[in-house]
Amino acid sequence: MTDLPEFYFRIRENGAVMFRVDTENRQRRIEMSEIAVINVRNGNIRPHGDHVLTEDEREVIAEWMEERRAILAERDLDDIHRAIDHLNLTTQWVQSRASEDELDSITDRLLLAMHDLRSVLVRKKADRLIKAQKAENSD
User: Fold this and answer.
1) Together in a domain, 56 and 111
2) Are 58 and 31 in the same domain?
3) Residue range 51-77: average pLDDT?
4) Which residues contact 95 (CB under 8 A, 6 or more apart)?
5) Is 52 helix (H, G, I), strand (E, B) or coil?
6) CA dihedral in degrees (118, 119, 125, 127; nearest 10)?
7) Number of structural domains, the chain?
8) Using H for helix, E for strand and C for coil, what is the string for 25-44?
9) What angle do CA 108, 112, 114 make, to 5 degrees?
10) Residue-number span of the structural domain to which 135 is assigned
11) 3-state DSSP call for residue 19?
12) Which has fewest Cβ within 10 Å: 2, 9, 35, 135?
């Protein structure tokens, strides 16, 4: 049997539940004891029950949170690249295959979503340009 990690993180929507993995028992069964609930978004760590987290456990949690945040940020960016691909595929579908009924069912919602996205992108771009110009003028 391969060596199992000391801790296991069961992923949840906003973080994870952390378990201690134990195979050192008489039946040689894998036992997992919940020791903490972790919220990646706000950094909250709640020990389970009466468990008091050790410094080592806190270090493992901090490392896991850092890795998890990096994974989630990478996924967010990947999702945006996929959204760009989907917009291009949607354009092609509208151009070549969509029926009038299909277009009637999606046009208004898609136009509003695209308008909202465009407004935010233009505002953020303008903010970045103004910030860069101020930084350039202060040098």
Assistant:
1) no
2) yes
3) 97
4) none
5) coil
6) -170
7) 2
8) CCCCCCEEEEEEEEECCCCC
9) 115
10) 101-139
11) strand
12) 2
- Verify that 13 and 42 share a domain, yes or no: yes
Q: How many other CB atoms are found less than 10 A from the CB of residue 76?
A: 9
Q: Assess contact for 44 and 18: CB atoms under 8 A.
A: no
Instruction: Determine the pLDDT at residue 133.
Output: 94
Block residue for tokens 């973080």: 15
Residue 50: name the closest of 33, 64, 63 by CA: 33
Structure token digits, residue 54: 């050790």
User: Among candidates 76, 51, 59, 60, which has minimal Cα distance to 6?
Assistant: 60
* CA distance linking residue 3 with residue 30, whole number of Å: 11
Alpha-carbon gap, residue 108 to 16, rounded angstroms = 38
Copy the structure tokens of residue 97.
């295959």
pLDDT in tens, 86-113: 999 999 999 999 999 999 999 999 999 9
